[in-house]
């Protein structure tokens, strides 16, 4: 069995003008694909060959296999990121909206926290909206770090590696982050993850 390279959940030009088709062609078609290819090369012929990506990530983390962890976690993070974005404008509702009001005071305050975390994160990494012990919070992880951890349910993520925005924005990360938070976040996906009460599952091959 091999780890899948899932297609984008929308057309390559669907996020323009906020994220260009050129960026997605490179980010999804090259960066994400390379991570998946490296995972598949590493697990071929091993006991991990028939495992899910989530199992591979946990094995790599537990065994200290940094190379496998980096490529497997990055494969998962990227697939989760594509689903965290939507070309159609969405808004929190129901239980998600109530949880946001309870834990942040308002959607505007949550957006401010997401923007501050993503913009001020040093170097490469990810800014997350997660549910932990029934409460929502904003976190960040460095490099390939993932919130795919016991007791945490990732709801949304923003990629703040330079390859996520450099073609469109050069080094102006705030312009990219503001566009993602204000125009592209898939709140319906966040609501599904919250309702599930457990981590999203990477698609099978």
From TrEMBL:
UniProt binding sites for Mn(2+): 27, 78, 159, 163
Enzyme type, top EC level: oxidoreductase
Gene3D superfamilies according to UniProt: Fe,Mn superoxide dismutase (SOD) domain, Iron/manganese superoxide dismutase, C-terminal domain
One of the record's GO molecular function terms: superoxide dismutase activity
Main function: Destroys radicals which are normally produced within the cells and which are toxic to biological systems.
Pfam name, any one: Sod_Fe_N
Keyword Oxidoreductase among UniProt keywords: yes
The protein's Enzyme Commission number: 1.15.1.1
Family statement: Belongs to the iron/manganese superoxide dismutase family.
Name this protein carries in UniProt: Superoxide dismutase
InterPro entries for the chain: Mn/Fe_SOD, Mn/Fe_SOD_BS, Mn/Fe_SOD_C, Mn/Fe_SOD_N, Mn/Fe_SOD_N_sf, SOD_C_sf
PANTHER family: SUPEROXIDE DISMUTASE (PTHR42769), SUPEROXIDE DISMUTASE [FE] 2, CHLOROPLASTIC (PTHR42769:SF3)
Keywords of this entry: Iron, Metal-binding, Oxidoreductase
Catalytic activity, reaction form: 2 superoxide + 2 H(+) = H2O2 + O2
Highest rank taxon of the organism: Bacteria
Any coiled-coil regions, as ranges: none
Domain Manganese/iron superoxide dismutase C-terminal: 92-192
Ranges of residues in domain Manganese/iron superoxide dismutase N-terminal: 5-86
């Amino acid at each position: 069995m091999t780890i899948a390279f899932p297609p984008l959940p929308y057309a390559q030009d669907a996020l323009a003008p906020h994220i260009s088709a050129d960026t997605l062609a490179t980010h999804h078609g090259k960066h994400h694909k390379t991570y998946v290819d490296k995972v598949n090369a590493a697990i071929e012929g091993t006991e991990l060959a028939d495992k899910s990506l989530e199992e591979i990530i946990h094995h790599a983390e537990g065994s200290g296999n940094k190379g496998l962890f980096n490529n497997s976690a990055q494969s998962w993070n990227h697939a989760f990121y594509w689903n965290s974005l939507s070309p159609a404008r969405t808004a929190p509702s129901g239980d998600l909206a109530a949880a946001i009001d309870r834990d942040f005071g308002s959607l505007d305050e949550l957006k401010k926290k997401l923007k501050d975390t993503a913009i001020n994160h040093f170097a490469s990494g990810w800014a997350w909206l997660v549910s932990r012990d029934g409460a929502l919070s904003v976190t960040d992880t460095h490099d390939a770090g993932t919130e795919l951890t016991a007791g945490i349910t990732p709801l949304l993520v923003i990629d703040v590696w330079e390859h996520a925005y450099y073609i469109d924005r050069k080094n102006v990360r705030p312009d990219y982050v503001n566009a993602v938070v204000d125009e592209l976040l898939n709140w319906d996906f966040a609501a599904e993850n919250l309702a599930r009460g457990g981590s999203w599952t990477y698609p099978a091959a």
